[in-house]
Amino acid sequence: MPTPKPRAQSRPFCFSVKGQVKILRLDVINSLVTAVFLITVSILALIPESTTYIVLGGVFGLVASLFCIADGALIYRKLLFNPSGPYQKSAVHDKLVV
Q1: CB of 46 within 8 A of CB of 37?
Q2: Is residue 60 part of a domain?
Q3: pLDDT digits (tens, 9 = 90+) for 30-49
Q4: Is the pTM of this model over 0.70?
Q5: Nearest to 76, CA basis, from 39, 34, 27, 37
Q6: Where does the chain have alpha helices with state H?
Q7: Residue 40 belongs to domain spanning
């Protein structure tokens, strides 16, 4: 009967690099879904134009949706240029300066 190999200690998935990347991808999706929801509600608020406060709320919602889109774009850019996460270590003298 073969002896079982001892299993190496592993971190929980949410604390691993792959887990962090998946969380960031979910954050991008969450930002875009929130932006679509805010745009929909803001446009519906701007249609009747009954009071000044409703118009201000609609404009505020559109500005908030722009911030959500910017948040998603910045997180996507972080994933695009640094897909392995912040845990990748390299020495300063190993970087190639052009």
Answers
A1: no
A2: yes
A3: 889 999 999 999 998 888 77
A4: no
A5: 27
A6: 17-46, 52-81
A7: 16-80
